[in-house]
Amino acid sequence: MSENITPDWKLFETQRATHKRHAKRRTPLTILIRKVREQHGWLGNMSAHPVEWEGKKYRTTEALFQALRFDDPEVVVAIREQKSPMAAKMVAKKHKAQMTVEPMSEDDLFHMRLCLLLKVEQHPELKNRLLETGNEEIIEDCSKRKRGSALFWGAAFDGEKWVGDNQLGKLWMELREELQPTRCLAA
Q: Which parts of the chain span the membrane according to its record (predicted)?
């Protein structure tokens, strides 16, 4: 599956520079991604927003994201056919030895960004909701699971500050910045 996607490394380097800007920026308001049923739960990969990729429908971006880590068509189908995003994640975990994309790698980040982009392209109301977040910082709150990949994709509040890479939040903020309508100034 991953051989169908050729990462645009020049674009990725540009995105990395934007990523670094967001890492240093702090805003007074923070949007937390926690549970699907909460106000901003739609920003999470477990939300019930199906996406289509290469003519196939995935029930959630989590299912697509997990499937993109594999080349074996049988594993990809097994992930896609799961009825819940957590079940899709568990199938991927079961086949971890067959992954062709290293979790938390540059390819993994590229795939996550693709999933988020597909989500807002295929659900225009989510694009509008994302733009409505203004300049607020977006953080995947992993305070209840402060280990492993959780601190890569999200951040945990330690009582004083947020600790973690928060890659999911940064990707959302980058995408939001790119989706901002451009304003032409009259000369």
A: none
